[in-house]
Write a structure and sequence with these properties.
It is built from 12 helices and 14 strands. It is of the alpha/beta class and about 400 residues long. Strand 9, helix 9 and strand 10 form a beta-alpha-beta unit. Bound molecules: iron/sulfur cluster. The site of iron/sulfur cluster has 9 residues, from loops.
Protein backbone atom coordinates (compact mmCIF):
# COMPACT_ATOMS: atom_id res chain seq x y z
CA UNK A 1 0.00 0.00 0.00
CA UNK A 2 1.36 3.43 -0.89
CA UNK A 3 2.57 5.85 1.74
CA UNK A 4 2.75 8.75 -0.68
CA UNK A 5 0.55 11.70 0.20
CA UNK A 6 -1.65 12.88 -2.60
CA UNK A 7 -2.01 16.64 -2.85
CA UNK A 8 -5.02 18.82 -2.32
CA UNK A 9 -5.37 21.86 -4.54
CA UNK A 10 -8.81 23.32 -4.21
CA UNK A 11 -11.00 22.89 -7.29
CA UNK A 12 -12.40 26.10 -8.66
CA UNK A 13 -13.93 25.63 -12.07
CA UNK A 14 -13.16 29.10 -13.41
CA UNK A 15 -9.68 29.80 -12.10
CA UNK A 16 -7.16 31.29 -14.51
CA UNK A 17 -3.49 30.49 -14.12
CA UNK A 18 -0.84 33.20 -14.37
CA UNK A 19 2.03 32.38 -16.72
CA UNK A 20 5.65 33.08 -15.81
CA UNK A 21 8.20 33.23 -18.62
CA UNK A 22 11.21 34.65 -16.80
CA UNK A 23 13.22 32.58 -14.37
CA UNK A 24 13.85 35.87 -12.50
CA UNK A 25 10.14 35.96 -11.65
CA UNK A 26 10.23 32.70 -9.67
CA UNK A 27 10.09 33.97 -6.09
CA UNK A 28 11.61 30.95 -4.38
CA UNK A 29 14.98 30.90 -6.12
CA UNK A 30 17.88 32.96 -4.82
CA UNK A 31 19.48 35.66 -6.95
CA UNK A 32 22.59 33.46 -7.28
CA UNK A 33 20.52 30.48 -8.47
CA UNK A 34 18.71 32.64 -11.02
CA UNK A 35 22.03 33.98 -12.22
CA UNK A 36 23.42 30.49 -12.75
CA UNK A 37 20.31 29.37 -14.64
CA UNK A 38 20.34 32.30 -17.07
CA UNK A 39 22.56 30.51 -19.60
CA UNK A 40 20.32 27.42 -19.39
CA UNK A 41 17.10 29.28 -20.12
CA UNK A 42 18.81 31.20 -22.89
CA UNK A 43 19.27 27.86 -24.64
CA UNK A 44 16.20 25.91 -23.45
CA UNK A 45 13.34 28.23 -22.74
CA UNK A 46 11.58 28.38 -19.37
CA UNK A 47 7.85 28.69 -18.85
CA UNK A 48 5.69 27.88 -15.84
CA UNK A 49 2.60 29.16 -14.08
CA UNK A 50 1.60 30.08 -10.56
CA UNK A 51 -0.56 26.98 -10.03
CA UNK A 52 2.13 24.51 -11.05
CA UNK A 53 4.91 26.30 -9.15
CA UNK A 54 2.58 26.16 -6.15
CA UNK A 55 2.83 22.35 -6.15
CA UNK A 56 6.57 22.49 -5.41
CA UNK A 57 7.90 21.79 -1.93
CA UNK A 58 10.62 24.44 -2.00
CA UNK A 59 12.22 23.10 1.18
CA UNK A 60 13.24 20.00 -0.80
CA UNK A 61 15.90 20.67 -3.47
CA UNK A 62 15.05 17.28 -5.01
CA UNK A 63 11.31 17.84 -5.10
CA UNK A 64 10.03 16.01 -8.23
CA UNK A 65 7.76 18.83 -9.38
CA UNK A 66 10.68 21.20 -9.04
CA UNK A 67 12.85 18.84 -11.12
CA UNK A 68 10.18 18.80 -13.80
CA UNK A 69 9.87 22.53 -14.27
CA UNK A 70 12.91 24.34 -12.84
CA UNK A 71 15.98 24.30 -15.14
CA UNK A 72 19.22 22.64 -14.13
CA UNK A 73 22.74 23.66 -15.08
CA UNK A 74 23.55 20.09 -16.22
CA UNK A 75 21.21 20.64 -19.18
CA UNK A 76 24.04 22.56 -20.81
CA UNK A 77 26.20 19.46 -21.10
CA UNK A 78 26.93 18.60 -24.70
CA UNK A 79 24.85 15.45 -25.06
CA UNK A 80 22.20 14.02 -27.37
CA UNK A 81 20.51 15.37 -30.47
CA UNK A 82 17.71 17.89 -30.78
CA UNK A 83 15.66 15.52 -32.95
CA UNK A 84 16.63 12.23 -31.29
CA UNK A 85 13.98 10.13 -33.05
CA UNK A 86 14.59 11.75 -36.42
CA UNK A 87 11.06 13.05 -36.76
CA UNK A 88 12.29 14.97 -39.79
CA UNK A 89 12.40 11.65 -41.67
CA UNK A 90 8.65 11.07 -41.24
CA UNK A 91 7.58 14.65 -41.89
CA UNK A 92 5.42 14.47 -45.01
CA UNK A 93 4.31 18.12 -45.13
CA UNK A 94 4.79 21.23 -43.01
CA UNK A 95 3.76 20.23 -39.47
CA UNK A 96 2.58 16.77 -40.56
CA UNK A 97 4.22 13.49 -39.51
CA UNK A 98 3.22 10.06 -40.80
CA UNK A 99 5.22 7.16 -39.40
CA UNK A 100 2.71 4.40 -38.67
CA UNK A 101 0.11 3.39 -41.24
CA UNK A 102 -3.03 4.39 -39.35
CA UNK A 103 -1.88 7.48 -37.48
CA UNK A 104 -0.94 10.99 -38.60
CA UNK A 105 0.40 13.70 -36.30
CA UNK A 106 -0.48 17.35 -36.79
CA UNK A 107 2.01 19.62 -35.03
CA UNK A 108 -0.39 22.51 -34.69
CA UNK A 109 0.92 24.53 -31.75
CA UNK A 110 4.39 25.41 -30.54
CA UNK A 111 3.55 26.52 -27.01
CA UNK A 112 2.81 24.50 -23.84
CA UNK A 113 1.23 25.37 -20.51
CA UNK A 114 4.74 25.12 -19.09
CA UNK A 115 7.92 23.58 -20.43
CA UNK A 116 8.97 20.20 -19.09
CA UNK A 117 12.73 20.27 -18.77
CA UNK A 118 13.07 16.80 -20.30
CA UNK A 119 10.90 17.54 -23.36
CA UNK A 120 11.93 15.57 -26.46
CA UNK A 121 10.50 18.28 -28.72
CA UNK A 122 12.24 21.22 -27.06
CA UNK A 123 13.59 22.15 -30.47
CA UNK A 124 10.10 23.45 -31.33
CA UNK A 125 10.43 26.13 -28.67
CA UNK A 126 13.78 27.38 -29.94
CA UNK A 127 14.22 30.49 -32.05
CA UNK A 128 14.28 29.75 -35.75
CA UNK A 129 12.42 26.45 -35.59
CA UNK A 130 9.63 26.29 -38.13
CA UNK A 131 8.35 22.71 -37.79
CA UNK A 132 4.96 23.62 -36.38
CA UNK A 133 2.28 24.79 -38.78
CA UNK A 134 -0.49 27.07 -37.62
CA UNK A 135 -2.17 26.40 -40.94
CA UNK A 136 -3.24 22.76 -40.90
CA UNK A 137 -4.70 22.76 -44.42
CA UNK A 138 -1.74 20.80 -45.86
CA UNK A 139 -2.22 18.20 -43.13
CA UNK A 140 -5.94 17.99 -43.73
CA UNK A 141 -5.39 17.52 -47.46
CA UNK A 142 -2.83 14.80 -46.78
CA UNK A 143 -5.22 12.99 -44.46
CA UNK A 144 -8.10 13.28 -46.96
CA UNK A 145 -5.90 11.59 -49.57
CA UNK A 146 -4.90 8.74 -47.23
CA UNK A 147 -7.95 6.61 -46.36
CA UNK A 148 -5.80 4.27 -44.26
CA UNK A 149 -5.41 7.07 -41.69
CA UNK A 150 -7.97 6.35 -38.98
CA UNK A 151 -6.23 8.20 -36.13
CA UNK A 152 -5.06 11.81 -36.07
CA UNK A 153 -3.05 13.15 -33.15
CA UNK A 154 -3.09 16.88 -32.48
CA UNK A 155 0.19 17.68 -30.85
CA UNK A 156 3.02 20.19 -30.76
CA UNK A 157 3.45 21.89 -28.27
CA UNK A 158 0.13 21.59 -26.57
CA UNK A 159 -3.03 21.86 -28.70
CA UNK A 160 -5.15 22.79 -25.66
CA UNK A 161 -3.23 26.05 -25.46
CA UNK A 162 -4.71 27.06 -28.80
CA UNK A 163 -7.81 29.21 -28.91
CA UNK A 164 -11.12 27.37 -28.77
CA UNK A 165 -11.96 28.84 -32.17
CA UNK A 166 -8.91 27.18 -33.77
CA UNK A 167 -9.53 23.93 -31.97
CA UNK A 168 -13.13 23.93 -33.12
CA UNK A 169 -12.08 24.52 -36.74
CA UNK A 170 -9.52 21.72 -36.73
CA UNK A 171 -11.71 19.20 -34.93
CA UNK A 172 -14.69 19.94 -37.18
CA UNK A 173 -12.57 19.66 -40.32
CA UNK A 174 -11.23 16.31 -39.14
CA UNK A 175 -14.71 15.09 -38.26
CA UNK A 176 -15.79 15.87 -41.81
CA UNK A 177 -13.26 13.30 -43.08
CA UNK A 178 -15.09 10.00 -43.01
CA UNK A 179 -12.15 7.66 -42.46
CA UNK A 180 -10.81 9.58 -39.45
CA UNK A 181 -12.35 7.66 -36.55
CA UNK A 182 -10.21 8.83 -33.63
CA UNK A 183 -9.00 12.35 -32.93
CA UNK A 184 -6.33 12.33 -30.25
CA UNK A 185 -5.39 15.43 -28.31
CA UNK A 186 -1.94 15.12 -26.75
CA UNK A 187 -1.89 17.46 -23.77
CA UNK A 188 -0.31 18.16 -20.42
CA UNK A 189 -2.80 20.95 -19.71
CA UNK A 190 -4.76 18.77 -17.24
CA UNK A 191 -1.56 18.82 -15.15
CA UNK A 192 -0.42 22.38 -15.90
CA UNK A 193 -3.80 24.12 -16.00
CA UNK A 194 -6.63 21.88 -14.75
CA UNK A 195 -9.20 24.58 -15.44
CA UNK A 196 -8.58 24.80 -19.20
CA UNK A 197 -11.77 22.86 -19.96
CA UNK A 198 -13.89 23.55 -16.90
CA UNK A 199 -13.87 27.32 -17.54
CA UNK A 200 -14.60 26.95 -21.28
CA UNK A 201 -18.20 26.01 -22.02
CA UNK A 202 -17.61 26.40 -25.76
CA UNK A 203 -14.79 23.86 -25.81
CA UNK A 204 -16.91 21.46 -23.75
CA UNK A 205 -19.60 21.72 -26.40
CA UNK A 206 -17.05 21.14 -29.22
CA UNK A 207 -15.78 17.97 -27.53
CA UNK A 208 -19.26 16.71 -26.65
CA UNK A 209 -20.48 17.13 -30.21
CA UNK A 210 -17.42 15.60 -31.87
CA UNK A 211 -16.71 12.66 -29.57
CA UNK A 212 -19.41 10.38 -30.89
CA UNK A 213 -20.25 6.74 -30.13
CA UNK A 214 -18.40 5.50 -33.24
CA UNK A 215 -15.81 8.25 -33.57
CA UNK A 216 -14.26 9.19 -30.29
CA UNK A 217 -11.96 11.95 -29.18
CA UNK A 218 -9.14 10.70 -26.97
CA UNK A 219 -7.24 12.82 -24.50
CA UNK A 220 -3.66 11.55 -24.38
CA UNK A 221 -3.01 13.05 -20.97
CA UNK A 222 0.46 13.51 -19.59
CA UNK A 223 0.86 13.13 -15.85
CA UNK A 224 4.36 12.30 -14.64
CA UNK A 225 3.97 12.15 -10.88
CA UNK A 226 1.08 11.41 -8.49
CA UNK A 227 1.47 14.85 -6.90
CA UNK A 228 0.18 16.34 -10.13
CA UNK A 229 -3.14 14.60 -9.49
CA UNK A 230 -4.58 17.37 -7.34
CA UNK A 231 -8.30 17.67 -6.69
CA UNK A 232 -8.37 20.36 -9.36
CA UNK A 233 -6.64 18.06 -11.87
CA UNK A 234 -9.06 15.24 -11.11
CA UNK A 235 -11.99 17.61 -11.57
CA UNK A 236 -10.45 18.82 -14.83
CA UNK A 237 -10.13 15.26 -16.13
CA UNK A 238 -13.67 14.53 -15.06
CA UNK A 239 -14.78 17.38 -17.31
CA UNK A 240 -13.20 15.61 -20.31
CA UNK A 241 -14.87 12.33 -19.37
CA UNK A 242 -18.23 14.06 -19.02
CA UNK A 243 -17.82 15.41 -22.55
CA UNK A 244 -17.49 11.84 -23.83
CA UNK A 245 -13.72 12.02 -24.24
CA UNK A 246 -11.75 8.82 -23.56
CA UNK A 247 -8.75 9.54 -21.34
CA UNK A 248 -5.44 7.67 -21.20
CA UNK A 249 -2.06 8.69 -19.84
CA UNK A 250 1.37 8.57 -21.41
CA UNK A 251 4.58 9.85 -19.91
CA UNK A 252 8.31 9.29 -20.00
CA UNK A 253 10.35 7.67 -17.26
CA UNK A 254 12.35 10.57 -15.86
CA UNK A 255 15.23 10.54 -13.41
CA UNK A 256 14.41 12.42 -10.22
CA UNK A 257 10.72 12.61 -11.06
CA UNK A 258 9.13 9.17 -11.44
CA UNK A 259 12.05 6.70 -11.54
CA UNK A 260 10.74 4.88 -8.52
CA UNK A 261 8.35 1.94 -8.58
CA UNK A 262 6.28 3.23 -5.68
CA UNK A 263 5.87 6.66 -7.27
CA UNK A 264 5.04 5.24 -10.68
CA UNK A 265 2.81 2.51 -9.25
CA UNK A 266 0.91 5.00 -7.10
CA UNK A 267 0.34 7.25 -10.09
CA UNK A 268 -0.87 4.34 -12.22
CA UNK A 269 -3.27 3.19 -9.50
CA UNK A 270 -4.69 6.69 -9.10
CA UNK A 271 -4.96 7.18 -12.84
CA UNK A 272 -6.92 3.93 -13.13
CA UNK A 273 -9.30 5.03 -10.34
CA UNK A 274 -10.10 8.35 -12.04
CA UNK A 275 -10.70 6.96 -15.53
CA UNK A 276 -7.37 7.73 -17.19
CA UNK A 277 -5.47 4.44 -17.26
CA UNK A 278 -1.80 4.30 -18.28
CA UNK A 279 -1.06 3.71 -21.96
CA UNK A 280 2.66 4.21 -22.68
CA UNK A 281 5.67 4.65 -20.44
CA UNK A 282 8.36 6.10 -22.69
CA UNK A 283 12.04 5.49 -22.33
CA UNK A 284 13.57 8.98 -22.38
CA UNK A 285 14.92 9.85 -25.81
CA UNK A 286 18.55 10.93 -26.03
CA UNK A 287 17.52 14.53 -26.66
CA UNK A 288 19.96 17.42 -26.31
CA UNK A 289 19.87 18.85 -22.81
CA UNK A 290 18.20 15.78 -21.34
CA UNK A 291 21.09 13.85 -19.84
CA UNK A 292 20.15 14.68 -16.23
CA UNK A 293 16.70 13.18 -16.81
CA UNK A 294 17.71 9.86 -18.38
CA UNK A 295 17.25 6.41 -16.84
CA UNK A 296 19.13 3.39 -18.27
CA UNK A 297 16.93 0.75 -19.91
CA UNK A 298 17.69 -2.05 -17.44
CA UNK A 299 16.98 0.09 -14.40
CA UNK A 300 13.90 1.45 -16.13
CA UNK A 301 12.59 -2.03 -16.77
CA UNK A 302 12.90 -2.98 -13.09
CA UNK A 303 11.07 0.20 -12.05
CA UNK A 304 8.37 -0.44 -14.63
CA UNK A 305 7.92 -4.06 -13.52
CA UNK A 306 7.68 -3.00 -9.90
CA UNK A 307 5.08 -0.37 -10.72
CA UNK A 308 3.06 -2.89 -12.74
CA UNK A 309 2.83 -5.20 -9.73
CA UNK A 310 1.25 -2.55 -7.55
CA UNK A 311 -2.16 -2.19 -9.11
CA UNK A 312 -5.08 -3.90 -10.76
CA UNK A 313 -5.11 -4.91 -14.41
CA UNK A 314 -6.42 -1.47 -15.33
CA UNK A 315 -3.51 0.15 -13.50
CA UNK A 316 -1.04 -2.13 -15.33
CA UNK A 317 -1.94 -1.49 -18.93
CA UNK A 318 1.12 0.55 -19.81
CA UNK A 319 3.73 -0.64 -22.29
CA UNK A 320 7.32 0.43 -21.70
CA UNK A 321 8.59 1.57 -25.09
CA UNK A 322 11.39 3.40 -26.85
CA UNK A 323 10.11 5.75 -29.55
CA UNK A 324 13.02 4.90 -31.79
CA UNK A 325 13.53 6.23 -35.28
CA UNK A 326 12.57 2.75 -36.58
CA UNK A 327 9.46 2.29 -34.47
CA UNK A 328 8.06 1.85 -30.98
CA UNK A 329 10.32 -0.76 -29.46
CA UNK A 330 8.76 -2.41 -26.43
CA UNK A 331 11.08 -3.47 -23.62
CA UNK A 332 9.55 -6.83 -22.75
CA UNK A 333 12.01 -8.43 -20.34
CA UNK A 334 15.52 -8.36 -18.93
CA UNK A 335 17.45 -11.27 -17.46
CA UNK A 336 21.05 -11.77 -16.36
CA UNK A 337 22.35 -11.87 -19.92
CA UNK A 338 19.84 -10.37 -22.29
CA UNK A 339 17.36 -7.62 -22.97
CA UNK A 340 14.25 -8.78 -24.86
CA UNK A 341 12.63 -6.30 -27.20
CA UNK A 342 9.77 -6.29 -29.66
CA UNK A 343 8.55 -3.84 -32.28
CA UNK A 344 5.14 -2.84 -30.94
CA UNK A 345 4.84 -0.40 -33.84
CA UNK A 346 7.28 -0.26 -36.72
CA UNK A 347 8.01 2.36 -39.34
CA UNK A 348 8.45 -0.55 -41.76
CA UNK A 349 5.18 -2.53 -41.38
CA UNK A 350 7.06 -5.76 -42.13
CA UNK A 351 8.97 -5.33 -38.88
CA UNK A 352 5.89 -4.99 -36.70
CA UNK A 353 5.84 -7.55 -33.92
CA UNK A 354 9.44 -8.58 -34.53
CA UNK A 355 11.06 -10.00 -31.43
CA UNK A 356 14.72 -9.18 -30.74
CA UNK A 357 17.31 -10.25 -28.19
CA UNK A 358 20.16 -7.92 -27.25
CA UNK A 359 23.08 -8.35 -24.89
CA UNK A 360 22.35 -6.86 -21.50
CA UNK A 361 24.04 -3.51 -20.98
CA UNK A 362 23.17 -1.78 -17.73
CA UNK A 363 24.53 1.57 -18.91
CA UNK A 364 22.56 1.76 -22.15
CA UNK A 365 19.62 4.11 -22.35
CA UNK A 366 18.77 3.71 -26.06
CA UNK A 367 18.50 0.97 -28.69
CA UNK A 368 21.52 2.22 -30.62
CA UNK A 369 23.77 1.47 -27.65
CA UNK A 370 22.71 -2.17 -27.47
CA UNK A 371 24.47 -5.02 -29.21
CA UNK A 372 22.25 -7.63 -30.88
CA UNK A 373 22.88 -11.30 -30.12
CA UNK A 374 23.56 -13.90 -32.78
CA UNK A 375 20.48 -15.79 -31.67
CA UNK A 376 18.28 -12.75 -32.18
CA UNK A 377 18.14 -13.25 -35.95
CA UNK A 378 17.55 -16.99 -35.65
CA UNK A 379 14.81 -16.69 -33.07
CA UNK A 380 13.04 -13.77 -34.61
CA UNK A 381 10.87 -15.69 -37.10
CA UNK A 382 9.60 -18.03 -34.39
CA UNK A 383 8.56 -15.18 -32.12
CA UNK A 384 7.67 -12.50 -34.62
CA UNK A 385 4.23 -11.48 -35.68
CA UNK A 386 5.80 -9.71 -38.58
CA UNK A 387 2.76 -9.64 -40.80
CA UNK A 388 2.07 -6.32 -42.47
CA UNK A 389 -0.29 -3.93 -40.69
CA UNK A 390 -3.07 -4.65 -43.18
CA UNK A 391 -3.12 -8.33 -42.18
CA UNK A 392 -2.89 -7.67 -38.46
CA UNK A 393 -5.55 -5.01 -38.29
CA UNK A 394 -7.62 -5.60 -41.40
CA UNK A 395 -8.79 -2.92 -43.79
CA UNK A 396 -10.43 0.08 -42.16
S1 LIG B 1 3.93 19.33 -22.36
FE1 LIG B 1 4.84 17.86 -23.80
S2 LIG B 1 5.48 19.08 -25.59
FE2 LIG B 1 5.14 20.49 -23.86
S3 LIG B 1 7.09 20.74 -22.87
FE3 LIG B 1 6.08 19.08 -21.80
S4 LIG B 1 6.74 17.22 -22.84
FE4 LIG B 1 7.24 18.93 -24.20
Amino acid sequence: MSTLQLPQAAPSSSRKVKYIREIEAVPHLTAAQKDRLKAVVDRYVFRANDYYLGLIDWSDPNDPIRQLIIPREEELKDWGKLDASNEAAVTVAHGVQHKYTHTVLLLCNEVCGAYCRYCFRKRLFMDGNDEVSNDVSAGLNYIREHPEVTNVLLTGGDPLLMSTRRLREIIEELRAIDHVRIIRIGSKMPAFDPWRLTRDAELQEVLRRNSTPRKRIYLMAHFDHPRELTDAAVEGLDAFLRCGVICVNQCPLIAGINDDEEVLGTMYRELSFIGCPPYYLFQGRPTAGNEPYEVPIVRGWHIFRGAMRRGSGLASRARYVMSHETGKVEIQAVDDRYIYLRYHRAKDPAMRGRFMIYHRNDEAYWLDQLEPTDVSGQLAPAFAMSAPDEILEGPE
